[in-house]
Amino acid sequence: MATVVCIHGGFGGGWEWRAVARKLTAIGHEVYTPTLTGMGERAHLLRPDTDLETHVADVIAVLRAESLEHVVLCAQSYGGIVGTVVADRVPELLDRLVYVDALIPRDGDSAFDVIPEEGVTMFKKLADQDANRIAPPVEGTPMPGSYDARMTAHPYLSLAQPARLTGAGAKVPTWYVRCTGGDPVSALVEPSAERARSMPDWRYLELVSPHDAHWFKTDELVAILDSVAKEVAAG
User: Fold this and answer.
1) pLDDT digit string, tens, across residues 146-159
2) Which CATH number is 3-233's, of 1.25.40.10, 1.10.287.110, 3.30.70.260, 3.40.50.1820?
3) Hey, which residues are catalytic here?
4) Of 3, 11, 116, 147, which sees the most CB atoms within 10 A?
5) What is the rounded average pLDDT for all residues in the chain?
């Protein structure tokens, strides 16, 4: 059995990982799907100062409060920024880091620094910076109405604040799952995926799926995460 912690992407919440969590639990794993401050059922907690560091603190608080160790940290989309910083801060608690079509920052990069210019322009057009919120960009996404209806605003500062990294996270063995469904949202992570392909010590996989593989290709993603967990168990 492994402990898996899933970090959701922008405008979402822990709720979107329910199916993955259910299936992983059924095969013996322990799964946590925290919702980041200001989104999902925690949308009412969005404040003018909610930022990337808030979200990093959210995840580390779960690891600490639940006394979790040997964790498989799964980070999707924007969650890759959060997961990278978490791995840098508490590498001793993680056995694997799994990016799922996720953004990857270098030290000093914000999310806006690692997505293409057209994505930055889109998000800024949807933003009310004074209120620290970006409206959900539902137009042009492949998501069903039941998903769109639950999307919430995203804290602007979490995309604008640079990630501060020491390099400590490099010791955590890393997988990258690239979604190749070709939807516009997935295109925003291509620079990060290109970097992942160039990392000699990382495992790089491709999955034919839209950007949100946990929603569209649940069984396939569960099989990948189960493989990661078995790799951990095998030492």
Assistant:
1) 677 889 999 999 99
2) 3.40.50.1820
3) 77
4) 11
5) 95
